[in-house]
Specification:
Order of helices and strands: HHHHHHHHHHHHHH
Distance between the termini: 45 Å
Radius of gyration: 20 Å
Shape: globular
Largest sheet: none
Low-confidence stretches: none
Helix content: over 70%
Mean pLDDT: 87
Number of helices: 14
Strand content: under 5%
């Protein structure tokens, strides 16, 4: 195969992964489904009927029929580009994500670290959009989002390093930052969720999820009853739809990342069985770490949220990192 043919093939596969599967259309459809399921389960727990499962799809479709209204004093370029920033970052992350038993995701050097650097983009997009809107509520949401992001990024990094160190030490090398290799190791040697050394890291990751997704009790940047959606207050139409799409993609990315890091087991049946199995595991992680928590708790203050992440997830993740480093 010539270099030009190989380059053309790799480019085509890259675009397919980015636009269709495992990212793109697949990630969007799964993300919107999970958001609908989350709202439905929460409603049932609160003894409400709740919206239909397709409500997130309908919300996105309706927003694209509306006009984007912008404050006269807003910074036009930053206001319009902010949602695209978050959407692009999550689209790339979704394409890198392995679906165990189906796809290893787009190959990338150290893709675990690439995902770590891209994951904050939706939060950064919220901060840029909120500050560009010229709304005081947007500025307040900017401040809260920045504070919270500093808090939950540290346990995430420690969790990733713990998993990378555990797999790397077991395979006789240094830290392993390839998600495909991490998944392959677990398929051959057992899932890390059942390894006593990695259980603190798994708990830390479950505690990380509501913070990065901005759900109760960590929804302080967009608190409806306090700052009226904060950074999103002035957004409408397609611009707001792009924020919701980025959030749906991020739902798949963070839940799918948890599956790849701790629960990548497969079932017989090939693609037909393992795609639903992957979605089911994502839904289970969502129900445990997001839906049940927000149904049973109230909102933290921003200082309480910051202190929580420094005290609990960080300590749990660091414990697994130290144990993995010592080869236990």
């Amino acid at each position: 195969m010539s270099y030009a043919t190989e380059l053309f093939t790799q480019t085509g596969l890259g675009l397919l992964g980015l636009l269709v599967f495992p990212g793109g259309l697949f990630a969007l459809m799964v993300g919107l489904f999970l958001k609908g399921l989350d709202r439905r389960i929460e409603a049932r727990l609160q003894r409400r009927v709740g919206p239909p499962l397709i409500q997130p799809y309908l919300d996105i479709a309706k927003l694209f029929t509306k006009e984007t209204v912008m404050p006269a004093s807003a910074n036009r370029a930053a206001f319009l580009l902010a949602p695209l920033l978050g959407l692009t970052g999550m689209a790339v992350c979704a394409a890198l994500l392995p679906v165990p038993g189906v796809s290893g995701g787009l190959p990338a050097m150290g893709d675990l670290l690439v995902i770590f650097y891209l994951l904050p983009l939706p939060a950064i997009a919220l901060m840029v959009g909120g500050s560009a809107s010229s709304s005081p509520f947007g500025a307040m949401g900017f401040s809260r989002e920045m504070t919270l992001m500093f808090a939950y990024e540290m346990p995430l990094l420690a969790v990733m390093l713990a998993v990378a160190m555990k797999v790397g030490m077991a395979t006789g090398g240094g830290a392993e930052f390839s998600l495909a290799n991490i998944v392959d190791y677990q398929l051959a040697n057992g899932q890390l969720a059942f390894d006593p050394v990695m259980i603190p890291a798994l708990l830390a990751y479950l505690l990380f999820l509501p913070g990065t997704m901005g759900t109760v009790p960590f929804d302080v940047p967009e608190a409806e009853t306090e700052i009226i959606e904060g950074p999103l207050l002035e957004y409408s139409g397609p611009a707001l739809a792009f924020f919701h799409i980025a959030s749906a993609l991020k739902t798949v990315v963070v839940l799918g990342l948890g599956v790849a890091l701790f629960l990548p087991g497969t079932v017989p049946g090939g693609i037909v069985a393992n795609i639903p199995w992957f979605v089911l595991k994502c839904a289970a992680l969502m129900a445990v770490s997001l839906t049940l928590v927000k149904s049973a708790t109230g909102r933290f203050r921003v200082d309480q949220a910051f202190t929580f992440y420094l005290k609990y997830p960080s300590v749990l993740a660091l414990a697994s990192l130290v144990l993995a480093w010592r080869g236990m």
